[in-house]
Amino acid sequence: MTDKTEISEGVQPAGFPLFVVIWNQMQGMSTPRFHIQMANWLEGAWEHGKTRLLLMAFRGAGKSSIVALFAAWLLYRKADLRLLVLAADFGLAKKMVRNVKRIIERHPLTKGLKPDNPAQWAEDRFTVRRAKVSRDPSMQAKGVSSNITGSHADVVICDDVEVPNTSDSAEKREDLRERLREIAYVLTAGGTQLYVGTPHDYYSIYADCPREEIGEELSFLNGFERLALPLLNEEEECLWPEKYSPEDIEKIKIETGPNKFESQMMLRETNIMDGRLDADLLRYYEDDLAHCVLTNKYFIGSAEIVTSSAWWDPAFGKKSGDSSVLAVVFGDAGGNYYIHHTEYIRVDQLLRESEAVQQCKAIAQIARDYRLPNITVEKNGIGNFLPRILNNTLENMKIPTRIRDVATRKSKEYRILEAFDALLAAERIFVHKNVQKTPFVMEMREWKPGKSRARDDGLDAVAGAINQSPDRLASKPRTGSYAWPHSLPSKAKSDFDV
């Protein structure tokens, strides 16, 4: 595009693929075919005005080197451009800037861009010879967590902003997203964003579909033009056979483990921390609980529901760091479990009612909605007085749900494994789509016994509900379990007053 080119009149500017080949020849290196593919894609996007770009390539593919050449080529095409590099930390961003400086100094097409003033050629920022006067440098480096307020850029390059240190917990992932949203205030109108990296988590910013369990309605980079280059294509052919032999690939698989290989080499969003429970074995449904008046039977879809269990793992106060969660689980005659509802209870601090009363009212309403015959309250420090308050609330609201309080003696890790391990392997756990929109599935993906710092309150509540249900995979029900009684008053709908 002529408006993006600052080349002497009558001189045809070199295309980016040629720019790359010239540089590699100077370094005594050949140019892999897929590097030409990257170069063609980047040049085509720039020439056609595509301003939202995501380049993903397997680890070790040289994508950052290609992007550094691309940055130098952009300044060769238009010296007045302002580029900002964001990386997971300042050191990584400076590395990119140093690489671009080295290219400008040595590439035969860009040598004239180096300024005479050494002050304009710093380690983390530089300004090339340009006609436009600007307080912003031609290129500067910033860590993604640093303050970029006041900066302005025509091109923002996000180079490996997602790494384990910025994505290994829900809090870090949300913080990363918030930081990256700040780019909108830095980028000039019509400016270009280029993300470069590999996914490090199932909830990656690079995911091509939204993750409902973290509240996404659209993927984080929705609308971005994408180029993904995994190590192996669909025919299991290696993209860089000159560097990676079949033996090398097998060695990488063994040394890194399947999850990390899938994430870093095949570009599939996977938790590289090897969570213990396989959430991909969950099966989802959208049917509501239905009651047949004539037969007094309950159904989810075509499955007859014969057991109902609810477990409340209470918590008070934001300072505790725990969530107060009620889990409602149904079971059918075939031994399948339906995680129908998980309520992460919220309270209004402005109300005059105590937090305990507010939570008990929320629990009572759910008991009414799903006609729960029993609710088990985990009796811990705060759970000692809650059964009495909940009983009073249920009586005042005329809801005939019984309360059972238990003191758990088994470790949380044992309870979770006992509930999920065999059932997941047998693919007998079904999850309602509304539950998928809560943190429950994310908790399952990230749970690691013995060393997990991730939240697990919903996971623990569901485990409690499953463990107290009759075990349809065994010949005898678990001690203390309940069958779902059918003696409650019934109507066709489930949202009624009992």
| Beta-strand share of residues | 15-25%
Supply Rg. Answer: 29 Å
Which assembly state applies to the chains in this document?
single chain
Specify the overall morphology.
elongated
- CATH fold assignment of the largest domain: Rossmann fold
Structure classification:
alpha/beta
Unreliably modeled segments: 1-5, 471-498
Please give the CATH class of the largest domain: Alpha Beta
Straight-line N-to-C gap: 71 Å
Q: Helical region count? A: 15
Reported CATH architecture of the largest domain: 3-Layer(aba) Sandwich
Mean pLDDT score, rounded? Answer: 87
In helices, the fraction of residues equals 25-40%
Largest sheet: 9 strands, mixed
In CATH, the homologous superfamily of the largest domain goes by the name P-loop containing nucleotide triphosphate hydrolases
Say how many strands there are: 16
How many structural domains can be distinguished in the coordinates? Answer: 2
Task: Describe the protein in words.
The chain is an alpha/beta fold. It has two domains: 2-264, P-loop containing nucleotide triphosphate hydrolases (Rossmann fold, 3-Layer(aba) Sandwich), CATH 3.40.50; 279-467, Nucleotidyltransferase, domain 5 (2-Layer Sandwich), CATH 3.30.420. The protein is built from 15 helices and 16 strands. It has helices spanning 16-26, 33-47, 63-77, 90-106, 164-167, 170-181, 183-186, 246-256, 258-264, 355-370, 386-396, 412-425, 433-436, 440-446, 457-467; strands at 52-57, 83-87, 125-126, 139-143, 153-159, 187-197, 225-229, 283-285, 289-292, 297-300, 303-313, 325-332, 337-344, 374-378, 402-406, 429-432. The strands form two sheets. Strands 8, 9, 10, 11, 12, 13, 14, 15 and 16 form a nine-stranded mixed sheet that branches. The chain has a seven-stranded mixed sheet with strand order 3-4-2-5-6-1-7. Helix 3 (63-77) packs across helix 4, helix 8 crosses helix 9 and helix 12 (412-425) packs across helix 15. The longest helix is centred in the N-terminal third of the chain and has 17 residues, at 90-106. The protein is elongated and about 85 Å long. The N and C termini lie far apart (71 Å).
